[in-house]
Amino acid sequence: MKRPQVMIGTVIFAVALVIPLFLHNDYFLQVIFRLFLFATLGLAWNLVGGYAGQLSLGHAAYFGVGAYGLALLSKGMSPWLAIVGGVVLSMICALIIGSVSFRLRGPYFCLATIAFTEVLRLIAKNLPNVTGGDVGTPVPLLFPHNSMRSFYYACVVLTILSFAITYWVERSRFGYYLMAIREDEDTALSVGVNTARVKLWALLLSAALSALAGALYASLFLFIVPDQMFGVEVSVEIAILPMLGGAGTLLGPLVGSIVLETASEVFKNIFKEAHLLIYGILVVLVVLFLPEGIVGTLNRKLRWFKAAPRTPFASAPPPGPAEESKRIPLPLAE
Amino acid sequence: MPLLEIKNVSKRFGGLKAVTDVNMSVEAGEIAFIVGPNGAGKTTLFNLITSVHKADAGQIVFDGHDITHSSPHAAAKLGIGRTFQIVKPLRNLTVLENTMLGAFLRTSSPAAAEQEAAKVLQFLGMGKVMHLAARGMGLPMMKRLEIARALATKPKLILLDEVVAGLPTVEALKLADLLKRLPEWGIAAIGGVEHVMQVVMKIADRVVVLDHGIKIAEGKPQDVVHHPAVIEAYLGSKYKELLK
Ligand SMILES: Nc1ncnc2c1ncn2[C@@H]1O[C@H](COP(=O)(O)OP(=O)(O)O)[C@@H](O)[C@H]1O
Ligand SMILES: [Mg+2]
């Protein structure tokens, strides 16, 4: 049942790669660029929030650090090296968040992600000498002539990379471990899974991909400000896209991004000011009626043979208290 | 040297003494049972052995390693498998995938894990339900799945917390026959049961009786059940009079 998702993904990517051959309108390319950018961020989030079931509402942190890493480090090195630096910095952030919160159960991780991102936003706003403060900071060019088409291809390739990594994760022991942690952490521990460490690896991978997306996004706009990169709306959007498409599924983030980004673009043009309201209603409707997301729900509907049939032994009802107590005196009566 | 040695182990929860100064050891390939009424401290003892809870006092040594202050995943790596009294399957995965999770402890290859898992499931008579989702299983299969997942980790010792509780008697005895064969695989076991004594009589080499966290008797199953303290713990002193 993984196969159809891979096939659909491949078709989407193939279409994405040929689009620029026919479409020469930079505005539309930028819309689709944004779609794939958020698909990448959704795929990255999905490793932690979907497969491992650890809700992150602070993925803007890695996105923003990737962007600021490129902007600030490139003052002293080539932009490409600066991107690597940004990736490393974002992984250090992941290491900090993960190592303080992954040993604890409950909402600590989620709270830590929100708090940490807010701290980064405030740092970016309040260190004008380093980050440019509220005014923002310029970002270097990555591609000659800064052509929209180069950015577009880079973004699609990054999405394909994230998709391929997710595919690999799904089929590996690492992926099983992530799902086990989501389903029942005690069970995972009981079979020797170092759950804190496995969650941390997932977060590191996720942070690295998010930072690459952040660098790409920043370079396209050539200038970044703290609220745009570390804003809570960014974190929320990164989490909502894969949930809408199907958290913990390969195709979910891609589908979520296609649906939501297209909808928001269309609504923006038709409903003008009211588009955020419509967008919000759409999200609520999907959460209410498709709690497993679009791909998750389809998957379950199609996977009828796994739909919990009763086993030969299942008919035996659990014994009531009367039956239990009947057994007590047996050894003594013998 | 015994495979597992529990030395003067105690555990309190607030003011409640769940386990008090318990001594116990298990030899390689032995099947021991901890018997005691509800709340006696059996599950707590299992949680101490696997470091889910940390002992307040005493020492636990497994296979030459001091595991008193270890961690649950490290205990599994050393070779302690466990089942949960309240079953904890990964509900959305298949029976096979649940079992593979155990097998992944000793191999990183999904193909090898699948092979090992299938072998364990065949042994437990679960070949037919292998590809079904765990959430659809009835209690007997859920209990077996707990055992399958633990066995797939290739443990030296398996802790079976109430694996026959709530099963129809025929089903419980069938499972006991399978468990009796664990030593053939070089696996020692500690079972914990409240009162399914037929199973204990049938397969236990040794029985330890707990009551309110205190060990009140230890010995061969046929001796232990006639121990006055045991009869009292189970039936109260009134019935002891009657039995005389
Ligand atoms: N995590 C816990 N917190 C507080 N009390 C506990 C906890 N676990 C067990 N207990 C208490 O310890 C005692 C022993 O429980 P348990 O080990 O589950 O007994 P058994 O498995 O023999 O039925 C009980 O009184 C129980 O309420
Ligand atoms: Mg118990």
What does this structure look like?
The complex is a heterodimer of chains A (334) and B (244). Chain A is mainly alpha-helical and 334 residues long. Chain A has 17 helices and two strands. Chain A has a domain of 199 residues. In chain A, helix 2 packs across helix 8, helix 3 packs antiparallel against helix 4 and helix 3 crosses helix 10. Chain A is globular and about 55 Å long. The C terminus of chain A is likely disordered. With 244 residues, chain B is an alpha/beta fold. In chain B, the strands form two sheets. Chain B has a six-stranded mixed β-sheet, sandwiched between helices. In chain B, a hairpin with a 2-residue loop joins strand 1 and strand 2. The longest helix of chain B is centred in the last third of the chain and has 16 residues. The mean pLDDT of chain B is 92. The chains are: A mainly alpha (334), B alpha/beta (244). The interface between A and B is large, with 41 and 60 residues. The complex binds adenosine-5'-diphosphate and magnesium ion.
Low-confidence stretches of chain A: 304-334
The radius of gyration of chain B is: 18 Å
Q: Order of SSEs of chain B, N→C? A: EEEHEEHEHHHEHEHEEHH
Uncertain residue ranges of chain B? none
Q: Largest chain interface and its two residue counts? A: A-B, 41 and 60 residues
Q: How much is the average pLDDT of chain B?
A: 92
Structural class of chain B: alpha/beta
Total beta strand runs of chain B: 10
**Overall structural domain count of chain B:** 1
- The count of helical stretches of chain B stands at 9
What value does the Rg of chain A take, in angstroms?
A: 23 Å
Percent helix of chain A: over 70%
Apparent shape of chain A: globular
Per DSSP, what share of the residues of chain A sits in E-state strands of 2 or more residues? under 5%
| CATH homologous superfamily title of chain B | P-loop containing nucleotide triphosphate hydrolases
Strand order of the largest sheet of chain A: 1-2
Number of helices of chain A: 17
In whole angstroms, the N-to-C terminal distance of chain A is 54 Å
- How widely separated are the two ends of chain B? 41 Å
Element-level helix/strand string of chain A: HHHHHHEHHHHEHHHHHHH
